[in-house]
Amino acid sequence: MAEGLELRKFVAPEYIFGVDARSLAGRYAKNLGGHKALVVSDPGVVAAGWTKDVTDSLEEAGLPHVLFTGVSPNPKVQEVMAGAELYQAQNCNVLVAVGGGSPMDCAKGIGIVSSNRQNILDFEGVDKVRLPMPPLICIPTTGGTSADVSQFAIISNPLEKIKFAIISKSVVPDLALIDPLTLTTMDPFLTACTGLDALTHGIEAFVSNASSPMTDLHALEAIRLITDNLVDSIKNPQDVELRTRIMQGSLQAGLAFSNAILGAAHAMAHSLGGERDVPHGECNSILLDHVIEFNLPASPERFERIAQAMGLDLRGMDFRTKKKTLLEKVREIKKAAGVDKVLKDIGISRADVPVLSKKALHDPCLITNPRKATQRDLEVIYEESL
Length: 386
Ligand SMILES: [Fe+2]
Description:
Elements: E1 14-17, H1 25-31, E2 37-40, H2 43-48, H3 50-60, E3 65-68, H4 77-89, E4 94-99, H5 101-116, E5 125-126, E6 136-140, E7 152-157, E8 162-167, E9 175-178, H6 188-207, H7 213-235, H8 240-260, H9 264-275, H10 280-295, H11 300-309, H12 319-337, H13 353-361, H14 375-384
Parallel strand pairs: 1-9, 2-3, 2-4, 4-6, 5-8, 6-9
Antiparallel strand pairs: 7-8
Helix pairs in contact: 1-3, 4-5, 6-7, 6-8, 6-10, 7-8, 9-10, 9-13, 10-12, 11-12, 13-14
Bound molecules: fe (ii) ion.
The site of fe (ii) ion (FE2) has 5 residues, from helix 6 and helix 10.
């Protein structure tokens, strides 16, 4: 069927974007019928002061709350289960997540565990959630994961050394309060990792075989905004205008990938993140150019439009030169952002590649990759990234 004529759905939560959006948490939690909130955050975000702004707003609205900060950078099965226990023991009926992907994914996990009375491990895969979760408000404090608008939750299972994906409309929050001011406390490395994650979202969503005109629009704009502003925002952390552009880029990348799903870079980054506790964005960054190189022959016109969004003009070039120019640009951004490690730098050797590839082959993100990848293909991409 011709492009753009297939059936496609587009799911997005209500969101409020702009400086001070975080202070609306109390009013909206009440509107959603909340009588007691479980606030899910992490120690770093608490130290930055953003969690207190949100709990202050809950107090102003007269809403009692309990704070749960037992979330580590890649949220673990046992953290979700502990949060769900607290949620139930405290008779909460609304969830408020303040933080990056980890607290937001953990809050999603707590929500579906609480309403379905099942272990979080039961929800792995696509559309495995039976009952909707309680109302969830997300206040993102990083410009990258977009868990605040996505139908994804990524949880780590340390016992099996895997990160698994829960993909379901049931984990789309009820409301996202997207406040660019919260990005001003991110350190350069976190800004870079989360920004490169968002760039990967935009690129993978645009070439995904589940893309649509609606996701394309957001994906290309995300790629443009992040390419143009990421390095400057790393250098000028207090510049709210730059932070706003990155936050918008992250939001648009999220709207795109939540609906078009992702590809091989994410499948392989999830496998990598299960094996080593390395930031998700760094895993993507290590793999991104190598995955583009693998995927390029399957969708050369789409990659040309990505290059265009990155400010490149490939007209008149032959395929090899186009490929070289795009890969150079991606590598240049990685280098300028300071996230240009290779797998060896994070302790991965050739001996780890078969296991990593086997796990990545079963990740649902691989289904929408534009080029069909076998286990051997994934092994080669990992080997090239060593
Ligand atoms: Fe991601």
